[in-house]
# Entry
Amino acid sequence: MTTVLTIGVGAPLAQHLDAVSSATHLGVAALEAPGGLMARLEEAGQPEVLVLGTDVPLDRALGLAAQVDVWAIPLSVVLVGPSDPDLWVAAMRSGVRDVLGPDAGQDDVAAVLHRCGTVARARAEATRPVAGHGPGPDQGPDHRVVVVASAKGGVGKTTVSTNLAVGLARSGRGSTVIVDLDMQFGDVASALALAPEFTLPDTVNGAASSDPLVLKTFLTRHPSGLYVVAGSDSPAAGDAVTSAQVAQLIATLSTEFRYVVVDTAPGLSDHTLTVLEQATDLVLMSGADVPGVRGMRKELDVLQELALVPARRHLVLNMWDAAGALSTADIETTIGAPLDVVLPRAGAVALSTNTGVPLLQTGGRDAVTKGLQTLLGRFLPDAAPSRPGLLGRLRAGAR
Ligand SMILES: Nc1ncnc2c1ncn2[C@@H]1O[C@H](COP(=O)(O)OP(=O)(O)O)[C@@H](O)[C@H]1O
Ligand SMILES: [Mg+2]
# Structure
């Protein structure tokens, strides 16, 4: 039976819901109690469907739906309201799954609940959230801001940050956003085959800069569930963005997303140093050439002097070629630290860049994809052993 939480729903509709589901009914005042909606959902045992009744002001209801959408939890939101096309459009944009008329009959209620319950269960299955690690505000110690940086350009920062972000979004561990902080030549949107309506400069002005719900409307959604703050398509507009604005953007995103992945421009720009102040993780990258590796060493030294190396550091060597002049041992000696992940040079990467389909979206079995999965694994420390697929279960049954 579908589990339902209703807020501000009138008596006749509540009775219809009781007849076909296991429902908890609350008044609008419940939204003002400590913890707000998130706490009420938890108290109601994480229901599959949330019905927002006509007692909830429309703006408030749409805002709540947008918030639930960002949390990316397996919950379908139903709005009670008139069957007005404008309302439908606004509702769908906010992430509402279905709209019920205030005087809907028993059959309508049953049909809507059936659809919404099915979607919520499918989403729960697809994302398999880990108990106690739900996304959303107040995310606790597992909350991560990951900065991907390098001394030189063209070493694979965008490749790694987009793959990591898509991998995190697909992992179901929590809502994920990627921010393209390469103000001049950002290409995160292109690496994800997205045509964004808004870019970073749009997000740092006006209400979007401090209100997470407004900000969300400026983000672009990737099919993996990942949210994207695309880079500026005009270098001039990008240059006008100040470090304080960048800091505010990352802080606002951090309140709503469990994972914030930041792609950066080469070198140590002001913007990169600014986000490092809020970072929990630094992914420092280099190509497998002498100048690149020396650059990595220098960048690490400077960041250490500035006390800007976050708690977790991941050294990634990219475009490794076994036939090349440098051995990984030479490279580790030059850097003065062990490499955490080595990604080989592979044609599959260029193909993925050109088609805009990250390797972790398709899940191939080649060496680069495996290396990217190893890197992803470093951000999922509580990773439960993955459940065997159908084939694995058949094999286990045959034993
Ligand atoms: N491991 C790799 N093997 C082959 N080509 C790669 C590899 N990693 C990145 N590339 C290619 O190198 C180019 C630059 O990568 P990119 O991620 O844009 O670097 P950056 O963001 O550091 O400038 C892209 O065309 C990408 O396809
Ligand atoms: Mg780049």
Notes: The mean pLDDT is 88. Residues 3-127 form a domain with the Rossmann fold fold (CATH 3.40.50.2300). The chain has two domains: 3-127, 140-377. Residues 157-158, 182, 187 surround magnesium ion (ligand 2) (CB under 6 Å).
